[in-house]
Amino acid sequence: MIILFCPGEKRKKVVMYDGIWNLLYPKCCPVCFEILDDQTALICDGCKKKLKIVEQPFCFCCGKPLYSPEQEYCFDCTKQKHVFDRGFSLVVYNYASAPSILSIKYKNKREFLAFYGQLTKERYEKLLRELNIECIVPVPISRKKYRKRGYNQAELFGREISAWSGLPVKKNLILRRKETAALKELTPMQRKWELNRAFVWRGQGYEGEKTVLLADDIYTSGATADACAGILKKNGIKKVYVLTIAIGIGNG
Q1: N or C: which end of the chain has fewer CB within 10 A?
Q2: pLDDT tens-digit readout, 112-160
Q3: Number of Cβ atoms within 10 Å of the Cβ of 228
Q4: What is the pTM of this model?
């Protein structure tokens, strides 16, 4: 988007030449990575159908899709109590969504987050109002990873939501002070131990919002969400809801 500021007027007029910008830097589909025929769109029609959107029935706790409408909780959530209050996700993490999310995370395809931000609006705008969400807290990444990537994908996802919801993004309440071992190689107890030592509170004297939305890219076991929610609740936050772009199916 090219923005020109016209001088000589009391209020600056903003002229946006989307057509020219799209010729120079055409938008690509976040799923197939091909140039979009319709440059006003955010995704191919066919690719949106390929994504498995999280629909009911899903777990009343973590938001994981369920196999039966008679179920209320997934297998994992019947075995453990989470610290966060409820979780929600946009799509199932599978063959269609994984390359998209990994390209955002590791290949600087941050522009793809515009689609997921819009999908959040379509799916959860009403729910976020009903839950009385007051601010968005992105799950932090380590300084080492931030220096390498130049951005935190969870924060950028949160800012996409903030753009249409007006909710402030509070990125400095939690700090990730250390790298963790590869979580998939650890037992649940080891994973919990690692993550509980990884995050620390930075909002000393914080007297702000008490109902927050924790934003992240992928939900797997919920260990990261629990670790962050635990710190938030120990420091005065009353309700922590979790929203991720994708969620693994795992045990239903």
Answers
A1: N
A2: 999 999 999 999 999 999 999 999 999 999 999 999 999 999 999 999 9
A3: 27
A4: 0.87
Distance CA 194, CA 142 (A): 14
Assign 19 a pLDDT band (cuts: 50, 70, 90). low
Q: Two tokens at 99?
A: 């390359």
- Helix ranges (H only) for 64-221 are 75-79, 98-106, 113-130, 143-149, 153-165, 188-198
d(CA 18, CA 11): 22
> What one-character-per-residue DSSP string does 141-183 give?
--HHHHHHHSS-HHHHHHHHHHHHH-PPB-TTSEEE-S----G
User: Distance (Å, rounded) from C-alpha 115 to C-alpha 65?
Assistant: 21
- Measured in residues, the chain has a length of 252
Give the pLDDT score at 179: 73
Which among 235, 167, 169, 168 is positioned nearest to 199, based on CA atoms? 235
pLDDT at 114: 98
Distance, CA of 226 to CA of 240 (rounded, Å): 9
Contact by Cβ (8 Å): 135, 208: yes
Pairing of strands 3-5, 14-16: antiparallel
Sign of torsion, CA 229 245 176 173? negative
Please state the φ and ψ torsions of residue 184, each to the nearest 5 degrees. Answer: -65, -15
CA distance 163 to 165: 6
Q: pLDDT digits over 180-217, tens only?
A: 656 566 666 777 777 878 899 998 888 889 999 999 99
**Residue range 158-170: mean pLDDT, rounded:** 98
